[in-house]
From TrEMBL, chain A:
First-level EC class: ligase
Source taxonomy: Bacteria, Pseudomonadati, Pseudomonadota, Gammaproteobacteria, Chromatiales
Keyword entries, A-Z: ATP-binding, Bacteriochlorophyll biosynthesis, Chlorophyll biosynthesis, Ligase, Nucleotide-binding, Photosynthesis
Source organism, top-level taxon: Bacteria
Family affiliation: Belongs to the Mg-chelatase subunits D/I family.
Gene Ontology biological process: bacteriochlorophyll biosynthetic process; photosynthesis
Pfam families linked: AAA_lid_2 (PF17863), Mg_chelatase (PF01078)
InterPro entries attached to this UniProt entry: AAA+_ATPase (IPR003593), CHLI-like (IPR045006), ChlI/MoxR_AAA_lid (IPR041628), Mg_chelatase_ATPase-isu (IPR011775), Mg_chelatse_chII-like_cat_dom (IPR000523), P-loop_NTPase (IPR027417)
Pathway where this protein functions: Porphyrin-containing compound metabolism; bacteriochlorophyll biosynthesis
Molecular function GO labels: ATP binding; magnesium chelatase activity
The protein's name: Mg-protoporphyrin IX chelatase
Keyword Nucleotide-binding annotated: yes
UniProtKB/TrEMBL annotation, chain B:
Domain VWFA: 425-604
Compositional bias (Low complexity): 301-311
Enzyme class: ligase
Organism for this UniProt entry: Marichromatium gracile
Region annotated Disordered, chain positions: 1-22, 275-314, 340-364
Record EC number: 6.6.1.1
Family as reported in the entry's similarity comment: Belongs to the Mg-chelatase subunits D/I family.
Keywords: ATP-binding, Bacteriochlorophyll biosynthesis, Chlorophyll biosynthesis, Ligase, Nucleotide-binding, Photosynthesis
Protein name, as recorded: Mg-protoporphyrin IX chelatase
Matching PROSITE patterns: VWFA (PS50234)
Catalytic activity: protoporphyrin IX + Mg(2+) + ATP + H2O = Mg-protoporphyrin IX + ADP + phosphate + 3 H(+)
InterPro entries xrefs: ChlI/MoxR_AAA_lid, Mg_chelatase_ATPase-dsu, P-loop_NTPase, VWF_A, vWFA_dom_sf
Lineage: Bacteria, Pseudomonadati, Pseudomonadota, Gammaproteobacteria, Chromatiales
Job of this protein: Involved in bacteriochlorophyll biosynthesis; introduces a magnesium ion into protoporphyrin IX to yield Mg-protoporphyrin IX.
Amino acid sequence: MPIPFPFSAVVAQEEMKRSLLIAAIDPSIGGVLVFGDRGTGKSTAIRGLAALLPKMRAVDCTYQCDPEASDDVLCEDCRAKRAAGRTLKSRQVPVPVVDLPLGATEDRVIGALDLERALTKGEKAFEPGLLARAHRGFLYIDEVNLLEDHLVDSLLDVAASGQNLVEREGLSVRHPARFVLVGSGNPEEGELRPQLQDRFGLSVEVKTPQDLPTRMKVVRLRDAFERDPNAFVEKWKRQDGKVRRQIQKARELLPSVEVPDATLERAGELCMKLGTDGLRGELTLIRAARGLAALQGDTEVVDRHLKEVATSALRHRLRRDPLDESGSTSRVERAVAELFGE
Amino acid sequence: MNMTAANPAADQGVDAGPPPAGAGLSAWDDAVLAAALMSVDPVGTGGVALRALAGPVREQWLSLMRDLQPPEAPHRRIPLHVSDGRLLGGLDLAATLNAGRPIAERGLLVEADGGLVELAMAERISAHTAARLTMAFDSGEVVLERDGLAMRTPSRFAVVALDEGVGEDEGLLNALLDRLAFHVDLTHIRVHEAIACDYDPEDVVQARARLAGLTLDEEQLEALCGTALALGIPSLRASLFACRVACASAALEGRDQVEAEDLAVAARLVLAPRATQLPPSEEQPPEEPPPPPEEPEEQEQNQSEEQQQEPQELEDTVLDAAKAAIPADLLSQLQLGTLRRSRSRATGKAGAIQNAPTRGRPAGVLRGELRSGLKLNVVETLRAAAPWQRLRREERARRGIESSRIEVRQDDFRITRFKHRSETTTIFMVDASGSSALHRLAEAKGAVEMLLADCYVRRDQVALIAFRGKGAEVLLPPTRSLVRAKRTLAGLPGGGGTPLASGIDLGMMMADSIQRRGGTPILILMTDGRANVARDGAGGRARAFDEAKAAARAVRAQEMSAMVIDTSPRPQQQGRELAAEMGARYLPLPHADAGALNQAVRVATG
């Protein structure tokens, strides 16, 4: 597998980096959608983040179950083992980051009859798909707006329920599939289906930097990386390590981060002002702010955190006006400025 | 190894006129230089977008380019309608049946590792195919998740995209263009110019060896990045490519460090074709004569002085080199401010999505016979056959046949059914004539915008036709990009006569082609019905209206769903008559606000 560009060497694009880190700290936020110009390092950042994530403990089963998970999140094998009173042996494994490539067929995504075993042994066995592999990790879809509709449909259901239900070829399988959905794309190539857009917790817009020093820095780093990836990664190892420790610390801190009533109220006001549909926006806003607080080592969520994540958490939840090119971002910013004062 | 145009034939090209400035003299030499530089650093430069119609010039370039490749490097040509299986890889049916277990077949992109991919008719390539290519490009590997196979295979290759597009609207997808360092246009090169090539494969081999040791210093980097910014090139890939190409140029010329001349090459070949604006300070009248033929020598002269130059001056030199290569017509377009910031070559290529009915949601698999037109689902067939293999093997053994092959019988055949969701395309035919403009072109625009929003929710495609003055034109071919639709609409000027028949004709033509591709067109005509220009451009109300009615009858004959929105201040007899001839709904909207209009269309189109 090609060496990914180090996450810490991604220049600028602070909103994207922050959102990805928050999603890594709190998977329940529901993933990140990165939309924007070409050549802004969308997939670079995502692959880079994947490479530096801290390892996780996993049972040696098909789905890499969490040995400490409650029964309903375990796969059938692990549940049976636990019910039988056996301990679930586990080991450290890298967090899975699974690519859902365009052109994937449905059988590979949701899983299907294992062809090899069926042909050679005549056995009916389930061969898990990408959704199974992405359990507890990240599912990354580049050019998500070009994904075939029928794949989007399968994804939506699984992303919402955290479970993949396979009913085909005489198989009936249910397995856990909780993953952080990360999508990227370029709006010029087509809009994203609203239903899919809603599934993403945070939505980020990336733009090409327009100032010369930043542009030079990007080109210089990228060039150095491509000349000698190994040396480059070695050089950025410590920086990446710092980010990894930051994530680890934030994860430990997260459960103890307090959200005072005043902050909750503020979040509610903001969502009301913007007229976001349903409670999802509010919930994501709070969660993202809490993730950010943890990331910054704070134990209480305050206005500052809300302000910083509001745009990412809400811009894709406003009542849609597809013709408004930059409208939703500025609408959120305006509302934030009005509410919090500048 | 001098790339200066030395042959007299090239000089004649200038006197003869037409090939415009910049695209003139050294165009062929630059095209060859691009081929050589790409060969020096295929992965770093991504490849060449080659704009030219099929013909001897293109053939000559391609054959020169192929000769420059190392003999062991693979070379694959990808046809327009390549299937995913062939492109990315999939199940090898013959081998699988033979071996009795799934055997993967390598895709074209994997086979091309370390070499070159030629894309035939690249301007027609679908966004889906392009996305698969760019994915492999960006990650350096081909990820396969198909037919029960999962593989990642490293693959790095350069692409030569053969763009046979004509005119501004037809061309490579931006996603692809952005990833190819060189944009070469052979359109204005004549056959007798396309001869010389000063490079041979040995040069390339030597240059490749030299390439690793070459880097840009800070000033050079700043010069290239600054130039890109000054020329209004948003994508950072362009700057990166420029750096690569400068290094490749130095390597090719046998230098051990990058010189100003190399930067000039990079600016000319990489940055100039991408320019979307001229640097603000510079005055340059569009009629300025073509750059003098001795331009390359000039650069060489400058070269010695540039050693001591400040970065700003270096940047200016690079900028000049880029400007000299910007074709004159682009220049004049820029000055007129008519060039759109990004040439909107996004998708929305008519029917790119509809063209592929086998991409729909597979609506299950049927047991069935193989007839032509049906698609055998190999994996499902094998899955169906699998459980029986032991039995069949034993049966064969009883008959004395020893074989481990998979036996597939007729019963096992599984056919994929596709539910083809017929996509709706709403064609707006907007009357932009003087009389309409007077009344409420602005209001009609507002209404169309609201309808567009509705189309967005329904994932419909939209197309825009305007008619005014002497005729009708397609402002926007069917697209899903509503942002484009809005932008186009906003720029629609009003005024002139009302060539109603031409407008309806054009709408019908588009509707017809949509129908032939399996889509469902809806025609929405917004007019005040006051036709006064006939099909041939002549004036005269009576004839113009008669023709319009005839055109409307054609709509009814084809049983298209249509609607006439009367935008005149008071409901007119003409509008009603027209709607009747068309078999269309008639919506008089004396004081329509956009919301009411939207509501009406929603009801009418379901």
